[in-house]
Amino acid sequence: MLRIAAALLVTLALAPVCRGAEAAQDAAQDAAQQTAQPGADALKPMLRSDDLVFNGITRSRDGRLFSPFQRQTKGKGLELGEWRDGKPVAYPDEAWNAWKPGDDPAKAFVAVNAIRIGPDGDLWVVDKGAPGMGEAPLPGGPKLVQIDLAGNTVRRVYPLGAATTERSFIDDFRFNGRNVYLTDAGQPGLVVLDLDSGRTRRVLDGHWSTIAQRPLTGQGRVLRDDKGKLLFIHADQLEVSPDGKTFYYQACTGPLYSIETRWLDDAGASDAERARHVKLFAPTVATGGTAIDADGTIYASDTDGLRILKIAPDGTTSTLVQDPRLVWVDALWIDETGGLWIPAAQMNRTPAMNGGEASAVKFPTTVYRMEIGAKPLRN
Questions:
Q1: What count of other Cβ atoms lies within 10 Å of the Cβ of residue 218?
Q2: Cβ atoms of residues 343 and 54 within 8 Å
Q3: pLDDT higher for 58 or 73?
Q4: Backbone phi, then psi, for 81, in 5-degree steps?
């Protein structure tokens, strides 16, 4: 899941090396834009927007659809919407989407980054709490919000400020029992939230497995912020195995690592001890989003190859579908009838990731669905 924050922007000293990498990746982009590859004919457009950029999709058990949106103007526009009759409507209401500078950041969405239907059937929302580029999270801004879908009201807000710094960018989350695991893509590390007490802890803080080892790429190009600086997105994608015993995670540019969840859950364990149990799981590439099914197969987007990878429980990888329409696929979702929902977010074409150039997003932005015959895993 991805929303750019200035805390993630790092200037690389070896610029000539990166320029060479960009040249090499131009050829990769050309190859990726060729004719559709395996499974492309199974992609069915489900949702479209002529003017909005979204970076995810989630679907309730009774078929309601929600997306986080990317404001194009600071302090204005939709942050969280429900798709109704093919159009997004502010959710849970206008007030939660009406935050502007000066308002209380604890009581409205400042910058939604990730959403999902939880095991309890509620809609859960991560707000990174930073109002814009070059700005630190606001006091009270970083939070996990639980929304009751039956009443369309906020049930509880879990503040995350105690586990964040001025560089933090709380990115995505998954459930495991009464714990929630979250990634910090700005201050590299993981956060564990106890839902009963509301307490948070940082784990694998600054560990090499949570740090991006190369700049972000999309469609074969090295990406830069609106000031021309290279982008590094640290701990980002994450999943939990069906039995709840293994945690998978990676920086946005991969690779995918694993660790037994017992090392995350044990508050008495040191990070030095945890580090000894980190393992390389799969050599993933630059990734926009993931999903996992009930059999433990992980589906991960490839932002350079414009494809969805299928990663088996033993780490072996194959291509599920490849198509030039799959530009920066972000947070994926598996529905109750075995369909994979695929939002082609085009984030790499926005000014924040395109060196400050005018938006190159090609509307309509589209969410596709592909039948994969898999059972969903709700965590």
A1: 23
A2: yes
A3: 58
A4: -135, 150
**pLDDT band at 37; cut points 50, 70, 90:** low
pLDDT in tens, 19-36: 444 444 444 444 444 455
DSSP letters of 15-28? HHHHHHHHHHHHHH
Tokens standing for residue 130: 């930073």
| Residue 93 near residue 154 (C-beta atoms within 8 A) | no
The string of DSSP letters for 47-91 reads EEESS--B-B-EE-TTS-EEEEB--SBTTBS-SEEEEETTEEEES
Cis peptide bond upstream of 88, omega within 30? no
Task: Convert the pLDDT of each residue in 276-332 to its tens digit.
Answer: 999 999 999 999 999 999 999 999 999 999 999 999 999 999 999 999 999 999 999
Task: Answer yes or no: are the C-beta atoms of 339 and 316 closer than 8 Å.
Answer: no
Set out the domains of the chain in order of their start, with CATH numbers: 20-371 (2.120.10.30)
CA atoms of 286 and 280, how far apart (whole Å): 16
126: helix, coil or strand?
strand
Confidence at 246, pLDDT banded by 50, 70, 90? very high
Give dist(CA 283, CA 331) in Å, integer: 19
pLDDT surpassing 50 at residue 171? yes
